[in-house]
UniProtKB/TrEMBL annotation:
It comes from Amycolatopsis cynarae. Pfam families: F420H2_quin_red (PF04075). InterPro entries: F420H2_quin_Rdtase, Split_barrel_FMN-bd. The lineage of its organism: Bacteria, Bacillati, Actinomycetota, Actinomycetes, Pseudonocardiales. This is Nitroreductase/quinone reductase family protein.
Amino acid sequence: MRFLRPPARQVWAPAALVHEWLVPRALARATRDPVARKHRRVTAFQRRVLNPLTRALPFQTLLETTGRTSGLPRRTPIGGRRTGDEFWFVSEHGDRSQYVRNIRAQPRVRVRIAGRWHTGTAELLRQDDSRARLDKLPKMNSAAVRAVGTDLLTVRVDLDR
């Protein structure tokens, strides 16, 4: 691309350096795996906007895992349903979810249900039909999980008595 007028050349000269570096990388990233792209966008929005807001709500269901590297408690808003001494939910990103990775490293978790904390042991159920499981869970959350999910995975938490 050439600019014949001097003002355009003066403006474009420094911008071209950034442009030539940034555009090929942006195009390469845009053409990558669409599932990975969707996962990046959804998790960025959840991590920066949605989760901080919903964690503050007193009756939002939360899952507290232990960070696999830091050892610190990590709280994630989730949606699910308690059935007896079990709590069921579906991870929308499966093994890509940070809390699923934390569960694999340390399955002891806490779940805040209706404002009250419960301890338990989480189990990842790969053989379970996650889409059918969503039919048994709260409708609004299930719709959101279906809409933004990339790799559904059922999780059951066996609550302590």
